[in-house]
Every structure is written in C-alpha cells, then in structure tokens.
C-alpha cells in the first residue's frame, strides 16, 4: 500500500534494508510514495507497481515482476482494504484478493515448490472481534481473513511449506480509510450510523500507523510466530488473541 498502514510498513521495511515492491491501485499516491522512497533510500531499493488486486492476472504479473526485479520473494503483506458501499467489491478486495495473494505468495516462497520459505501477513481488523452495524460486510471479510489465514498456517505446518502465515488486527488507525466512514460514497446506506461509529472511535482512541508498522515488523522478524492473530489497540498495545486449543 502506498498510503496509510501500507506506507508506514514500507518505511519500516526499508529502514531495515528490505527491498520493497509497493503495489497499489492509486497511481498518483504510488508515484508520490516511490519518489519519497527514492530520496530517502535510493532508487534501486523499491518499485511501485500500479495494480488492482482484484484483477487476478494483474496481481499474478505483479508478483512475477517483483521476483524478476529482486531475484526472490521473502515477505508478502496482503493489506489492501476498502469500505462497504459496494458489498461484492468489498469481498473481492478485502477477502478474495487476500486469498489470491496468499496463494501467489506460496507459489513463490513455499518449499513445496522448491522455494526457500518466507512469511505472509494478512491484514484483518478488530472489526473481526467487535462487530459494527456500520460495516457488516467489512466485518464479514475481516472474520474471513482470520479463518482462512489460521487454516492456511496449519496447512503450511503440516505440508512443510516453510512459510509462516500470520494475521494483524488493528483497532482504529489514523489513515484515509478511517475518514471514509463519513461518506456515503464509501459506506452506502450505513453512513447514517456514522455518529455511533465516531462515538466508538472517541471511546477506544485512534492509533498511529507507525505502531501498526511496529507490530508488522515483529511478525516479520520473529520466526517463532506462526498461525498467530496479533491485535493492536490503544488500551493494550500490541498483543495476541488467545484461542481454545482444538480438541482432537
Ligand atoms: N484505518 C483503520 O482504522 C484500520 C484499517 N484496517 C485495515 O488495514 C488495511 C489498510 O488500511 P488503511 O491503510 O487504513 O487504508 P487506506 O485507504 O489508507 O489504504 C489502503 C490502500 O489500499 C489501496 N487499495 C484499495 N483498493 C485497492 C485495490 N483494489 N487494489 C490495489 N490497491 C487497493 C488504496 O489505494 C490505498 O492506498 C485495510 O485492510 C484495512 O481494512 C484494519 C483496522 C483498522
Ligand atoms: C473503516 C475502516 C476502519 C475500520 C476500523 C476498524 O476496523 C474498526 C473496527 C471497529 C468496529 O467497526 C466496531 C468496533 O468497535 C471496532 C473497533 C474496536 C476497537 C476496540 C479497541 C478495544 C480496546 O481498546 O481494548
């Protein structure tokens, strides 16, 4: 992502000397992000690829271009997310493309395909734990991201893929997406519940994107974390959801 949480994560990755492909639909935002990264880190360390993640062929090509450019892939972050107005599109961006991005990540990183392993982080939301009348389909997609990622993490363990798969669930974060909740263009008919949403935001507080980047870097660098669901909230900071162990 070229803005919001994605932009903060790119900054942290590049400060840690990673080479990064920024994939985003928004060309002007992507161009601006790329030129900022070039000034700070040099032009060879990043590429911007304009891509609609719901276009399966374009997403496949973006992965291939990245591998062609940098030689291999170690980390995939499926971060793109939109709000509610067009519910089918919301499912395509928030869930279908996360699944597609995970499968493409495995094609390029899994030991099953003779690759060297890696790490995938799928971005969900605290909306997966505390549902909201303001965003029913957004909420459903974020539940879906967790279910899919946990099951894939188990598949990766059992299949010896060598790829860690984790989920990150932020509460409210100060990004352009958060401002979108005031607009009918993004929320559709649920915009009328915006006062409720704002009340919840005032109550729980709003996080800085840099804290989400810190959580993301923990998931990337700690190779003991696999199949985990990280939550980030104002009240508890970075922490993990605990699940009942599965009965056998
Ligand atoms: N901001 C918040 O309060 C929270 C955000 N999240 C999640 O974090 C993720 C990032 O959100 P933010 O940075 O806040 O949003 P944002 O709107 O600031 O950034 C999202 C980026 O995704 C890109 N994007 C949207 N549709 C796309 C598509 N079809 N193809 C490619 N790129 C596309 C946008 O151009 C934008 O640059 C999302 O999955 C969101 O659901 C989760 C919890 C809280
Ligand atoms: C519109 C995009 C931003 C979406 C932010 C988000 O994911 C919001 C989730 C809220 C959901 O809609 C209803 C809520 O209550 C969620 C936020 C909850 C934050 C909980 C923090 C708890 C704590 O501090 O302990």
UniProtKB/TrEMBL annotation:
Enzyme class at the top of the EC tree: oxidoreductase
GO cellular component, one term: cytoplasm
Enzyme Commission code: 1.1.1.141, 1.1.1.232
Matches recorded under Pfam families: adh_short (PF00106)
Entries under PROSITE patterns matching the protein: ADH_SHORT (PS00061)
Molecular function as annotated in GO: 15-hydroxyicosatetraenoate dehydrogenase activity; 15-hydroxyprostaglandin dehydrogenase (NAD+) activity
Keywords from the UniProt entry: Fatty acid metabolism, Lipid metabolism, Oxidoreductase, Prostaglandin metabolism, Signal
Protein's UniProt keywords contain Signal: yes
GO biological process: prostaglandin metabolic process
Keyword Signal: yes
Catalyzed chemical reaction(s): resolvin D2 + NAD(+) = 7-oxoresolvin D2 + NADH + H(+); resolvin D2 + NAD(+) = 16-oxoresolvin D2 + NADH + H(+); prostaglandin A1 + NAD(+) = 15-oxo-prostaglandin A1 + NADH + H(+); resolvin E1 + NAD(+) = 18-oxo-resolvin E1 + NADH + H(+)
InterPro entries for the chain: KR_dom (IPR057326), NAD(P)-bd_dom_sf (IPR036291), Sc_DH/Rdtase_CS (IPR020904), SDR_fam (IPR002347)
SMART domains in UniProt: PKS_KR
Ketoreductase domain sequence ranges: 1-164
Task of the protein: Catalyzes the NAD-dependent dehydrogenation (oxidation) of a broad array of hydroxylated polyunsaturated fatty acids (mainly eicosanoids and docosanoids, including prostaglandins, lipoxins and resolvins), yielding their corresponding keto (oxo) metabolites. Decreases the levels of the pro-proliferative prostaglandins such as prostaglandin E2 (whose activity is increased in cancer because of an increase in the expression of cyclooxygenase 2) and generates oxo-fatty acid products that can profoundly influence cell function by abrogating pro-inflammatory cytokine expression.
Family: Belongs to the short-chain dehydrogenases/reductases (SDR) family.
Name of the protein in its database record: 15-hydroxyprostaglandin dehydrogenase [NAD(+)]
Species the sequence originates in: Neogobius melanostomus
């Amino acid at each position: 992502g070229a803005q919001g949480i994605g932009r903060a994560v790119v900054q942290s990755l590049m400060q840690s000397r990673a080479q990064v492909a920024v994939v985003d639909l928004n060309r002007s935002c992507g161009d601006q992000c790329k030129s900022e990264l070039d000034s700070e880190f040099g032009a060879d360390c990043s590429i911007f690829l304009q891509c609609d993640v719901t276009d399966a062929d374009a997403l496949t090509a973006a992965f291939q271009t990245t591998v062609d450019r940098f030689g291999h892939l170690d980390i995939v972050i499926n971060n793109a997310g939109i709000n509610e107005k067009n519910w089918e599109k919301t499912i395509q961006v928030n869930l279908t493309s996360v699944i597609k991005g995970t499968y493409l990540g495995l094609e390029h990183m899994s030991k099953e395909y003779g690759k060297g392993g890696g790490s995938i982080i799928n971005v969900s939301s605290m909306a997966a734990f505390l549902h909201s009348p303001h965003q029913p389909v957004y909420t459903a997609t974020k539940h879906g991201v967790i279910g899919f990622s946990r099951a894939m993490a188990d598949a990766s363990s059992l299949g010896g893929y060598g790829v860690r798969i984790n989920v990150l669930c932020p509460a409210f974060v100060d990004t352009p997406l958060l401002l979108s909740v005031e607009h009918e263009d993004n929320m559709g008919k649920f915009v009328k519940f915006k006062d409720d949403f704002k009340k919840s935001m005032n109550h729980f507080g709003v996080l800085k994107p840099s804290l989400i980047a810190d959580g993301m870097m923990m998931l990337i660098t700690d190779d003991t974390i696999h199949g985990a669901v990280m939550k980030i909230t104002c009240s508890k900071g970075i922490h993990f959801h605990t699940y009942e162990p599965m009965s056998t």
